[in-house]
Structures are given as structure tokens and as C-alpha cells.
């Protein structure tokens, strides 16, 4: 599973000053420089800092922060990190690992946890340290997944604290998880064209 073992074919791609990422803040911290498998879409106000390795086809949107200063952040392929989202980890304790085809909604906080492939983290949701979100799951908007929670694959999680309210239906998977991931690849292409 490429996303969980590190993004596929990652190399340190230098982003030229005239690229779409030229206005984003990409910064080395403690000797670690963010690495990208290819040129991602990075919005002008996005920040990617420190020990971050990002796979192919990713996008980091306006005012989103991917902060690998205190521990590592590993992001798979085709991940979209939407406006205002914060990805961080915990110093000397736990890094952050994101699988492939993951959507992280507006203003979500994903902190020091593991998110497997094909997951949707809803707007304003919070996923705390050492939680594990199983493949094909949805964390509903505003939900709070507490520290050390293990979410079984294909779960629909909602509430504060988040509880499993049922399985993710085929319709929800197709019309939300897959649709949102595909739409964000399309949206990023619009910005790259301009």
C-alpha cells in the first residue's frame, strides 16, 4: 500500500519561482526540507514546513498548514488538504501518516495520527494523536476523534466525541469519498492552467 509505506516515487522536486507553488511558504526546519513526488498544487497562502514527504497529485489549499517541524508527516498520493486545515504531529511522540486518495475538509485538524486510504475527514473535524482511521471511513463534519481511538475500516464516525454510527454505504463512498477526491484533482487543474 504505497500511501501507508510512504508516497510512491518521491524525490525532492525543486519548485521553480514561476511555478504554481511559488507563493506558498515552503520552508526547511531543523535540517528537513519538504519533498514532493511531483509538482503539487500549493495555493499562494498554503504552508508546508519541515519533515514533510508528499506523494503525487496532491493539493494544499488556501491557509492550510502542513507543519512537519516537531515530527514527520508522510502524505500519500492524490491527497487534498482543503482551506484552513492543519496537519501537525507531536514532538518525540508521534508523526502523522496519511494514505492515498484522502480528502481533509476545510478547517479540519489532523494531529499525530494515521489515516488510511480513501478516507474523508469532514469540515471542522478533529482527529487526535495516535488515532487510526481505517480505510474507506468518513469522519463527519465537526466530529472529534479522541486520542488512541481505532476506527475500523468502512466506518461512519460522528459526534463529540466521535462514535461509529454505522458503516459507510456504497452510495456514500461513491458520492462523497470518491467524488470529493476526484473533484479536488479537477479544481487543482484549473489553477495550474491559469
How is the topology of this model organized?
Elements: E1 25-27, E2 35-36, E3 41-42, E4 47-54, E5 59-60, E6 65-75, E7 80-81, E8 86-88, E9 96-98, E10 103-104, E11 109-111, E12 114-115, E13 120-121, E14 126-127, E15 132-133, E16 138-139, E17 144-145, E18 150-151, E19 155-158, E20 163-167, H1 170-193
Parallel strand pairs: 1-4, 2-4, 3-5, 4-6, 5-7, 6-8, 6-9, 7-10, 8-11, 9-12, 10-13, 11-14, 12-15, 13-16, 14-17, 15-18, 16-19
Antiparallel strand pairs: 19-20
Report on this structure.
The chain has 194 residues and is mainly beta. It has one domain: UDP N-Acetylglucosamine Acyltransferase, domain 1, CATH 2.160.10. Helices cover 12% and strands 33% of the residues. Strands 1, 2, 4, 6, 8, 9, 11, 12, 14, 15, 17 and 18 form a twelve-stranded parallel β-sheet that branches. Strands 3-5-7-10-13-16-19-20 form an eight-stranded mixed β-sheet. A hairpin with a 4-residue loop joins strand 19 (155-158) and strand 20. The longest helix is centred in the C-terminal third of the chain and has 24 residues, at 170-193. It starts with 24 loop residues before the first strand and ends with a helix.
Amino acid at each position: 500500500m504505497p500511501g501507508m509505506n510512504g508516497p510512491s516515487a518521491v524525490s525532492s522536486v525543486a519548485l521553480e519561482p514561476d511555478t504554481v507553488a511559488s507563493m506558498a511558504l515552503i520552508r526547511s526546519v531543523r535540517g528537513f526540507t519538504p519533498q514532493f513526488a511531483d509538482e503539487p498544487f500549493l495555493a499562494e497562502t498554503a504552508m508546508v514546513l519541515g519533515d514533510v514527504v508528499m506523494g503525487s497529485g496532491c493539493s494544499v489549499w488556501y491557509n492550510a498548514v502542513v507543519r512537519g517541524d516537531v515530527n514527520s508527516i508522510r502524505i500519500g498520493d492524490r491527497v487534498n488538504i482543503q482551506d484552513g486545515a492543519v496537519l501537525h504531529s507531536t514532538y518525540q511522540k508521534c508523526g502523522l501518516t496519511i494514505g492515498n486518495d484522502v480528502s481533509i475538509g476545510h478547517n479540519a485538524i489532523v494531529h499525530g495520527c494515521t489515516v488510511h486510504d480513501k478516507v474523508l475527514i469532514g469540515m471542522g473535524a478533529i482527529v487526535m494523536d495516535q488515532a487510526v482511521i481505517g480505510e474507506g471511513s468518513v469522519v463527519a463534519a465537526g466530529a472529534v476523534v479522541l486520542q488512541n481511538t481505532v476506527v475500523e475500516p468502512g466506518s461512519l464516525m460522528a459526534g463529540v466525541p466521535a462514535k461509529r454510527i454505522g458503516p459507510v454505504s456504497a452510495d456514500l463512498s461513491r458520492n462523497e469519498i470518491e467524488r470529493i477526491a476526484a473533484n479536488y484533482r479537477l479544481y487543482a487543474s484549473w489553477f495550474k492552467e491559469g
